[in-house]
Design brief:
Oligomer: single chain
Strand content: 5-15%
Helix content: 40-55%
Order of helices and strands: HHEEHHHHHHHHHHHEEEEHEEHEEH
CATH superfamily of one domain: Phosphatidylinositol 3-kinase Catalytic Subunit, Chain A, domain 1
Largest sheet: 6 strands, mixed
Shape: elongated
CATH architecture of one domain: Roll
CATH topology of one domain: Ubiquitin-like (UB roll)
Distance between the termini: 109 Å
Length: about 450
């Protein structure tokens, strides 16, 4: 065991009470502020390690390093927001030139070389029909070059050079070394050329992946760099044609052919556009004819109903009947055609019903009762063609008896009944209970009018 001798200054530097425990000086607890958040406490703890003498009163006040002093008066959330701007402490990614520069450092070479490398990798994947992988490589190359464009627009120095040479000695004030380095025009031209080509290549990937809108955007950006890029016009025309934007596709194709009249790919697209335009024109013409015919049919039907004195009414919530409707048959446009109505037979005493899709105006109710009755649920066999009475509700809420051998037109043309939501409603009641049901129906209607 090694024993070290304590210096004589030790007992003067440490004062111990008689009971062997260090004496703690009590501090007044008046006006103690409430505890701050953890970040503020940490900042206060650091501030206690740095003191300086005030020039006015000679008191000792906290003095922080410049980096920490800038955050001295900020709250915890504000400090976190500042830290998130630094790539080292980021918890969320945002558009940040410093971050992009650090990403670029992962690849050796100038931005032009890095972007060219990504483009070549993308070309290799594209040749193997790996569209998604090719698109990713093209996107990385575009990001590298767009970072350079943003830097030049602000007049900043080369991002890779400024990031990698962090230990360089600053040049004296007024020296030309402090000025942002001027880019070689040839280097800028090469970068923009690579950016243009990569955008057009990525547009080809979008076409293969059927991302047509993205393809048009990439072609538009490429044409801003070079308005004479024939491939951009070609791929833009193809994407616009796939989006059924025929006029725009035709414009893009025409502009491309102005630059290269013998371009076989553009000629092929031009033929596709012509064919598509013919199809769309025929489709539009057919739709217009359908609309005109429907309008004529509606007008003819309305005229036929008015001429026969048949009243109709629609409610806010008509029933679902698929294609069943009032119509002139066999020719909706012929004045010699007869009217056909959807009809429903209601059995109110048993809460059942039957639907007749087409009840012609010349037909009688007996014609339909013959094949509908007897009913499968009628165990007592009270519903027979000769054993039932039929009624229709009038406009005023009463009832009118319908003769079973009378044509439907004669019943509807009396003017005291109406067709609601294009459906003829007929109540079917056994003769033995018809008077009872009619009285109950009138009683309910009278009660409804009072309320």
């Amino acid at each position: 065991m090694k024993i070290e001798e304590l210096s004589e200054e030790f007992d003067t530097s440490v004062k111990v009470s008689e009971d062997g425990h260090p004496q703690l000086q009590s501090q007044p607890n008046a006006n103690i502020p409430p505890p701050a958040d953890l970040l503020t406490q940490a900042m206060n703890a650091i501030s206690s390690q740095y003191t300086t003498t005030s020039a006015q009163d000679g008191t000792q006040t906290p003095s922080l390093p410049p980096g920490i002093a800038s955050m001295r008066d900020k709250t915890g959330p504000e400090i976190l927001a500042e830290l998130n701007k630094s790539p080292l402490f980021m918890t969320e990614l945002e558009e940040n030139d410093d971050l992009e520069a650090i990403r670029a450092l992962a690849y050796e070479g100038t931005p032009e070389e890095v972007a060219a490398g990504f483009k070549e990798r993308g070309n290799e994947c594209f040749a193997e029909k790996k569209w998604k992988d090719a698109k990713e490589f093209y996107t990385k190359g575009i990001q590298v070059l767009l970072l350079e464009v943003r830097k030049r627009q602000r007049g900043d120095s080369h991002p890779l050079a400024s990031t990698s040479n962090t230990d360089a000695t600053p040049a004296p004030a007024g020296s030309r070394e402090n000025e942002p380095p001027t880019m070689d025009p040839k280097e800028i031209k090469n970068e923009l050329s690579i950016l243009e080509t990569t955008l057009v290549n990525r547009a080809a990937c979008h076409l293969s992946l059927q991302n047509y809108r993205s393809a048009t955007l990439d072609c538009a950006h490429a044409l801003r760099l070079n308005p004479s890029n024939v491939k951009a016009f070609y791929r833009s025309a193809r994407a616009l044609l796939a989006l059924n934007k025929i006029a725009q596709a035709d414009d893009a194709c025409a502009r491309g052919l102005e630059l290269d009249p013998e371009n076989a790919a553009l000629k092929a697209v031009a033929q596709e556009i012509i064919k598509k335009n013919e199809q769309e024109t025929a489709k539009q013409k057919k739709e217009q004819e359908r609309v005109i015919r429907k309008r004529k049919e509606e007008m003819m039907l309305k005229t036929a109903l008015t001429a026969r004195g048949i009243k109709t009414r629609k409610t806010a919530q008509p029933p679902e009947m698929e294609d069943a409707c009032i119509a002139l048959v066999p020719d909706p446009l012929s004045p010699e055609s007869s009217l056909s109505f959807p009809a429903v037979l209601l059995y109110p005493l048993h809460l059942e019903s039957d639907f007749i899709k087409a009840f012609n105006e010349t037909e009688s109710l007996a014609l339909h009762l013959e094949y509908i009755l007897p009913l499968p649920w009628d165990q007592q066999r009270v519903y027979t063609p000769n054993g039932v009475e039929c009624y229709m509700e009038t406009i005023t809420g009463g009832l009118v008896k319908v003769g079973k051998k009378v044509p439907l037109l004669k019943v509807l043309g009396q003017g005291n009944v109406e067709i609601v939501d294009e459906v003829v409603r007929i109540f079917v009641v056994p003769k033995g209970r018809s008077e009872e049901w009619v009285a109950e129906f009138k009683r309910k209607k009278a009660a409804e009018k009072k309320t």
